[in-house]
Records
---
Amino acid sequence: MADALASGASVRKDVGVQVPPRPQDEGRIVTTSEPSKTLTQRLSSRDATVGVLGLGYVGLPLAISFAEVGYHVVGFDVSDSVVSLLNAGASHIDDVTPSRVSPLVVEKSFTATSSVHDLSTCDVLFICVPTPFDKAKTPDLSFVESATRSVAKVLRHGMLVVLQSTTYPGTTTEFVRPILEETGLRAGVDFHLAFSPERVDPGNTRWNVRNTPKVVGGLTPVCTELAKTLLLSLMDDPTLVRTVESPDVAEMAKLLENTYRAVNIALVNELAQLCNEMGIDVWSVIDAAATKPFGFQAFYPGIGPGGHCIPVDPFYLAWKAREFDFQTRFIELAADINDQMAAYAIARMQDMLNERSISLRGANILCLGAAFKRGVSDVRNSRAIHVMELLRERGARVSYCDPHVSEVRLGGDTLRSLGVDEVADAKVDLVAVLVGGEWPLVQLEARGIVVFDAVNAGGAPGNHRQRL
């Protein structure tokens, strides 16, 4: 503390943050473009140090990608076990293999830490933390707040801070900015602030951090250009970074992307229910409509979207809209339709069991899939797990198989996955296909097992198999 005060820095007692000395305190007057120019040069030469707060499905791919193109990267996570795993050259994220992490750790291009102090050498800090909602579907920004307060502890002149967590318009300017400015430093003057939404699709091998177009909006034009310069250095193609006029626009763009998907999924989910009543195969309907080469994009029905974006983002937008006395009726209706698809799927299963004079209560049901989508281990907001929970509430005996998810918690119980090779011979009353995969549906049908295929994993229905 004495050293800090001797150097001219001040300490804000109310937040416990050391404030670096302003340039004018050092006996010289500089314009705000001077630190920007220096940072621009360092970004262009990839001589800057990049920090990433949150080493999950968004943060780790970003951190490793920056290290791979020549930056020194410091990754911060509150989990000591995650930090230890990464520093040993391993990975806890499906999309980031140990073969990518290990060489970077060895050459010290990437270091993981759980100490905020280790971020003090960074020129750029990305905030990549979860943005869930609570039971009332109200945005929960506690992770963003915690990460932002960590940034405040190491914030200094000329630093660039970029929020990537999906959130409602105004979060960067109305929530993150005031916390950072508690240090006495001014956003857009003493440090730079921007929002660039993540566009991570877990399990997608075609689109990744380096070839998926990015959107970025800064608090000032200088903030935007700095963030653009940094992101361009990461991309395979210099045309892949789109700048917008403010963080609010970038935040709203992200919500539009996912709300667009949510409402279109709701449309086909409702259509699937109508088609079932009419005796029409909705999958054939969609395939036929998709032959139109313009004005139509195919979406498919299911048990409701899961994961970290589509089930959450519409509620962030609806919540923010209420601040302006505006009700997003269409968006909220779509969310309600998607939410009730799990119960609808169970009703269909119950009908199939009734045809065999089997009660749902006490029935042995094998669920195929537990993750929120095919080919990943991510179970955040998994609709498959929600279906399992509802089945158990109705008295069914539930087992499951997912080669990527070894166990799940249902209530107070832990269920362990069957092996894929055990599925074909499983002694059950019904098999529910909840997530796509290479499942032995032909063998199950050959045994006369009733199969409810919620994701069209097996194609056209058979004698013992129905699809949603």
---
Amino acid sequence: MPDPRVGTVLAGRYKILERTTSGSMGVVYRAERLELKRALAIKFLNEGYAASEDGLRRFEVEARAMSRLEHPNCVPVIDFGVDQGAPYLVMDFIKGCTLGQLLTTEWRLAPPRAVAIMRQVAAGLAHAHAQRIIHRDVKPANILVSPVEGHGEHARIVDFGLAKLRDEGSFTTGIAVGTPSYMSPEQTVGEKADERADVYACGVILYELLTGVKPFQADTPFEVMRMHREATPLPLATAAAGVAISPALEAVVMRALAKPREHRFQSMSELRAAPSPDAADGEPTPPPPRGGAPVDAAPADPDAPFSAAQITKLQALAESGDLRGAIAGLEALRRAQPNEPAVHYALAGTYAEDQAWTQSVQAYRRTLELDPAYRSDSRLIADVVEALGSKQAHKQAARVIEQDLRTTALARLDEASRSSNRDLRARARKLRARLR
């Protein structure tokens, strides 16, 4: 039977082209933004998510929270609403496949590849946790993987906040909500989930990526949930016969899978700083240059553990109106931690808010040098395109767009080409013509 939504125009601006996937939470469609021809994904949730005024209120709160996620390893919500009783979320359309689909075709991944993907997932979750958003349902089906020419694979997380809606909705029955194979022990008994529940789920996924099997398998979901609380997973070397896995990497996975949450990594930043897969036996390798340091630290320490809370506090300072104070703090943090892309990214965004376009573009360019995955970040693209309207920074901005962003900036250039700012409009049109 034809899907009645296909071919219709939603909210007067989104044309629904085809149905792509469906699941227990709803249906996903490929769509496009009219006039801009921008590819989008629209997820219609089951009507129960907004069946009451309280449910609709929760949906709007969570949708707004998801829209605040601006990180290259998160798929943010760019619009939301309710159509004929069904709430929907509008997101960028990501070409590629889910991590679950990748596992069905490749069974398991080489340790360096698995770790590279999960470091990206941890980075995205660290950003979400800094916004006080706990995913609660991290699993391979909620991780999109797409190739990036010259830069390997780009992982992005979807469906932030939806598990919370499902958990708190009046239509939910039972004490445990989530996907049994990836639920933390505390979730299986209905306890409140914090960021350590997401750490546990990442441990399950990493175990599965390395071995090709889940750490706990049984005939019923309830037995799997019991095993999360009581059973010990097989050692990686046993489950992944024939694959060389270092003791350091095994220790990382097993710590993430600790039953008491107090024994796990206490944050995603701590998990990201764990040893790399080629660590020598008994000798943990130094954390990669993803660290952070106190804002007032004098010496640079690129290997210090990074805390997203440092950036969050400074961003809150900026939101309170003290942009200069926030910039001073972020500059100090940048000097202390010069190799952390999230610091340069936050600094660039704060400079943009202060209309300091030259400094903003410079910081964004350094962000891209440290982590090319930011090429698809919506805020970075918007700010760099906006800088085309600056007399001092427009040449720098054009170079970043041509050399680093290229086609990822086309949709934003289309919008800027209709700007009321004459300089921005003219430069955007000229640059758009060169890129096409």
---
Amino acid sequence: MEDIQTAIAALHAAQPDRDFLVISHAIDRSLHLKLSALLKEKRRNEKVTVFLTTYGGDPNGGFRAARCLRHYYKHVRLAVPSFCKSAGTLIALSADELRIGDLGELGPLDIQVRKGSELQESSSGLDIMQALQAVTSHTQDAFHRLLVGTRNLGLSTKLCAEFASTVASGIAAPLIGQIDPIRLGEMQRATRVAFEYGQRLNAYGNNLKQGALGRLIGEYPAHGFVIDRKEATELFDNVSDLSAEEAAFCDAIWDIVEHQRDGFDPQFVDAPQPQPTPDENADENPHGPHTEEAANDGASAGPGLAPEAGTGSAGDPANTNGSGVRVRASRVRGRGEVGRPEA
């Protein structure tokens, strides 16, 4: 507990003009609803540092969550201590700056589309496009080799071209015939969604380098491809390591930010409150500071993220609203300040 208090105090002392927000959650519509309600009620500053851990999720939910952050804050710094994959990377596009820890990683933005014939399985929106590219490349290669090979036999160019075209068509036709044009259209639209969302979110901080959005959507070979801090510097202009205070804070709440914690709601990290002196305690409590009530109050008080007992394990929340996660840091006390309504 003292380590957490010390880390939180150092974090606020180093950057007193910022709010600090911890999100360890799947990217979905429920995240947007929770985040919107939290920021409307408790936002205090115009700048925020968001500690985000997620495996990804719904791009529509990611877009709404990112827009929500930008609605309430003029400057957004995204700190990535661990996983920030898929739709989490979409949120990263809206940030003014990225701070990625030694274990932090982003991921590509190729949209995942659920397979109609499979339960709980999805495929990349690039699968069909890459299949078409492979068929096209194979057909062109076959045509070229046949044309050159038959021309060397002394046949006319016209006759060789006709022969090569017939053979190449025979190769391509059964392969292309397996591609569903309706499915192809769905994949193209899904990929277009990622591009349009990315353009709109990057407009806030303009942190993407030229052509980086296209690389994120279409040039990485797998959806799980690791984009670490070094790789991220090739895509974003403003990327750096976590500050010493941010790294110490992440170490103190590593149980929360190491992996996505389903059931852990977004929470602010409050600045430590000054502890009353013994004389003040005596004035407030005429029975003395050692009564059972005072002891209980002291046990429940604490700055910022406070531990709370629960029945769940590190990967099993004690209850579904995230308030009883049994980790070193599970609940943030509210500030009580009302912000402006979200558009």
---
Amino acid sequence: MTAREKKICEINGCGEYALVHSARCWDHMQDKDDYSAKLLDVAAKNKDLKGSNLKKAVLRKTLFEGVDFTGSDFSQADISESHFFNSTFRDASFIGTEMKLCDFTHCDLTGADLTKARLPGAHLWNSDLSSANLTESDLSSSDLWNARLFDVKLWHADLKNVKALSKFSFASGEGILPACRINETGEISAEESYRRIKQSFMENGKYNDASWASFKEKTMERQILWKNKKLDYLPSAIMNFLCGYGEKPYRIIFSAFLCIIAFAFIYRSLNAIESIAYPGSAIRWFDYIYYSTITYTTVGYGDFIPKPNGLFRILAACEAFLGVFLAGLFVFTLARKYSAR
């Protein structure tokens, strides 16, 4: 049979698919010890093993180099300490597979399903796991140097002692400023995943990367609040706009400029101020900007004051309060971002 064909195990009543290049499933195979050698011999002659059924197969310490396993089924198999250098596993299934100390250097695992797979100590150098499903997988002590994890599912994945993981491990690789994210289809699972990623970064002293993960975690939380129509959504959205949940201090500078311009426009629209230095003189647009700036910064030189009207004085007081509040928020977020947490 070819690698693309699937046949039912020849044992009556079995119902399982037969393994590739065999007439039986793994449970009913008689020559289990010889099967891995047979498969290695086939792979040496023909690198195309697309769609292979290797469910439950035991293939420990084997070497497959440059083999195409696209769409193959390795579910519940044991491929511990095997080497798959430069092989392709697009859309392959590794559900519950034992993959301890495997070497997947320069492999294509795009779209692969690794749900509950065990990969402790695995080498995934230069591998592409974009859009892979790593739900409940064990990645402890694995080496992810230069691996791509864009759009992966990481719900309940074990990231303890994982090596070479960074924000850019989750980059799309497209454009000057590529998008960095995991699969965010389910907000609750994405929030939990970003929290685990943040903890991994913190444990390794990667505070800038932890800042990115923390912002993404809070973003997922805000989307959950919106979906559930919670009142907490409004303060969450405001904090996102003002400072990116404490992770983007330079947003506060933008907010400060916006606040000054907005209040200057309001003062001008209401003709709310007058000059003490030059009584009766016309107030120019620049004067409104100036008055708004010194009010925001609480400097108050006294050359311009609000007209004797309660509303105008309340507006000035509100702007002064915002200035003090945003200045304090800026100091807090700056210290939070650039110091160890």
